[in-house]
Amino acid sequence: MFLFQVLICVLLFICSESIYAVQCQARKGVLAQYEITRQNTKSGKTIRFQVELWRKEKKVAIHNTKTGITELWEPTNNQKLHLVRYFEDHRRGIEYQPGEINGAHDWSLKRQLVANDYIRSLSKVSQMGSGCETVEMYEKGRDVQKFSLRWMSKQQLVQSYSEVDNENIVTWTLKRTEVNANLIEAKFARLASFETTDYTDIGDNESDPFLAQMINMGFIEHGSSGFYHSNGQPIESLHHH
């Protein structure tokens, strides 16, 4: 079907951007590895960690390499999200139903790490490349606070992002992408093999050493958006308001 669309476009000279989008997203999955840094300009302290975005059809796994936590997100039929928070070192997971998840149920935010609404709030300043390699540059603000986004629109991936204010400089940088289907399939199969506990059942299992440890560290609350430091404190993902 896709080749037929391309042929029609060539014959009629009306190839559209949507055809490129279909081609770029026809892959069964992708792994995108990011390095995130947060520098406090007053203290000079810098936090650096890596995040992996795994995509496969209607599933997204976001892995924080520092904490070993992977959040598996899936959309539901009623436009809500379902979450399983996996603790890979323990081979355990906590499952949250849509009503147990705090924050906005924005599938684009999970799938891309940046919400479509947020991209629309920025000003597009330039564009480079073509087809799957198209990169759009966006900006917002100036002086006290400034945001910059390089967006791989056809692949729906952040290439880079920066946020600067009078105290902090936050940057996201795409370091590597991988489309090996076997690698991606193995990641999701491994997660599916872990033992999971429903969030509502935690109160009946507080004697479980794993659950007790996670509760004490602050990792088990109502499902919330974002990433976590090793002490359970949340780290913001890209702005989505």
Your description of this structure?
- It is a single chain.
- With 241 residues, the protein is an alpha+beta fold.
- The protein contains six helices and 14 strands.
- A twelve-stranded mixed beta sheet has the order 7-8-9-10-11-1-2-3-4-5-6-12. Strands 13-14 form a two-stranded antiparallel sheet.
- The longest helix has 12 residues, at 181-192.
- The protein is globular and about 55 Å long.
Write the layout of secondary structure elements.
Layout: H1 2-12, H2 17-24, E1 29-40, E2 46-56, E3 59-64, E4 69-75, E5 81-87, E6 92-96, H3 107-112, H4 116-121, E7 123-128, E8 135-142, E9 145-152, E10 157-164, E11 168-178, H5 181-192, E12 195-198, H6 209-217, E13 227-228, E14 234-235
Parallel strand pairs: 6-12
Antiparallel strand pairs: 1-2, 1-11, 2-3, 3-4, 4-5, 5-6, 7-8, 8-9, 9-10, 10-11, 13-14
